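Z., the sequence and structure:
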Amino acid sequence: MPYQVAVCGPGECTPDEESAAHTVGRLLAERGAVVICGGGSGVMAAAAAGARAGGGPAIGVWPGATREGAAPGLSAVLVTGMGQARNAIVAASADAVVVIGGSWGTLSEIALARRREDAAVPVVSLGGWRVVDRDGRELPGIDHAPTPEAAVERALRGR
């Protein structure tokens, strides 16, 4: 079964985040991974376009009730009609999660991945959330990568 990596990030992102997402998607595809994302714009669209440029598939887990508005670079769109609750499907379907940038939806995907029963899902952050407890200590379980290349290497470690 192919290794599945969720690439999560905001629908509205910076040009640097968009470039990083495209590179991550491409590198994952070149290494044979299936890219899963939320199916929308920004980081999600860039990761999907990168995966397609790398010769691999990009699966969008779309929050809407129809495929209308989903990113054009997707290989397939899973229509859920679930709104942001679709983040649970994204996190549950991934063997690893790469987070680029930050939004509230992205933070929920981190939490859902870390709370999975198998708890073995690597979460790699590229310029995204640093989650701390009330005493200011960084919570464990998020690996912060300095580059798209490092994020892909770390996401694929458990393969």
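The domain at 4-155 is CATH 3.40.50.450 (Rossmann fold). The CA atoms of residues 61 and 105 lie 13 Å apart.

Let me know what you think.
H.
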